[in-house]
Amino acid sequence: MAYEIDLSGRAAFITGGTRGIGLACAHLLGQAGASVTIAGRSVQEGEVAVRSLTQAGVSAQFVALDVTSEEQVCETLARSASESGIDILVNSAGVARHRDTTNVDAELWNTVVDTNFKGTFLCCREGARHMIAQGRGGAIVNIGSISGIIANVPQNQAVYNASKAAVHMLTKSLASEFAASGIRVNAIAPGYVRTDMTKGGLENPVWAKIWLDMTPMGRVCEPEEVAQAVLFMASKASSYITGEVLTIDGGYTLR
C-alpha cells in the first residue's frame, strides 16, 4: 500500500485559517494538492492570507465567518459545499483567556465556550451533513489542546481547559457516529505553539521559563509542526484512524 500524500481533487475548509495553525494547515494541505477555503472574522487578514497562499502556488479563497453564529455557519458551509464540495474540514478557530476562576464572568465564558466548543460543534455538524450528502466520506480534524488533558500552570484558565476537553470528547463521539458514513473525525492536541495566542505568555519571563522547563524538548512548537499532523489525519495515510486525539507537545504532558 502506497502512503504518498496526494490531496489532488479534494476540497478543504479551514476555520481560523487566516493565521497561526489554521494558515499553516492551509499551506500544507494546499501544497499537497487540495483546493483550500480559509474562513475567519477579519477580511483584511483573509486577504493577506490568500495572497500568501496564492504566492505559494495554492488554490485558495477566503470567506468571512464567525463560527459562533449558527446562521453564518450553515450558510457559509452550504455555499462552500455547493461551489467546491467539502472533503476535509479543519476546525482551527479558537480563543484563549486567562483569568482566576473567581473572577470569571458570563462574557468571558461565552466568548471562550461559544468559539472553541459551540463553533467547533456547529462546523462539524454542518460539514458532516454535506459530506454525507456528497456520498464520498471525508475527514474532519479538530484542533484541541493539551489544555483539554492537563491543567496548565502557572496561568489559570479553567474555562479554556474545559472547552478543549469538550472538543476532545466531541471528536470521539462524532467519530463513532459518522464512521458508517465514511467520515473520519480526529483531533490534534498541541502544546505551546508559537502563535499570536501564546505571544504574551512567551514574552512573560516567568511563564515562559515554566512552560519550557516542563517541556522535555525544551522549545515551543511551530505551527507547521501541527499542520503536518493535520495533513496526516486528513489524508489516506490515516485511513484506519478515527476518534483519536493526537498530542503534539514536545513531551510536556509526560511531566
Explain the overall architecture.
By secondary structure, the protein is α/β, with parallel strands linked by helices. The chain has one domain (11-248): 3-Layer(aba) Sandwich (Rossmann fold), CATH 3.40.50.720. It is 46% helix and 15% strand. Strands 3-2-1-4-5-6-7 form a seven-stranded parallel sheet, sandwiched between helices. α4 links the parallel β4 and β5 (138-143). The longest helix is centred in the middle third of the chain and has 29 residues, at 106-134.
Can you lay out the helices and strands and say which pair or pack?
Elements: E1 11-15, H1 20-31, E2 35-40, H2 43-55, E3 60-64, H3 70-83, E4 88-91, H4 106-134, E5 138-143, H5 158-178, E6 183-190, H6 196-202, H7 205-213, H8 223-234, E7 245-248
Parallel strand pairs: 1-2, 1-4, 2-3, 4-5, 5-6, 6-7
Helix pairs in contact: 1-8, 3-4, 4-5
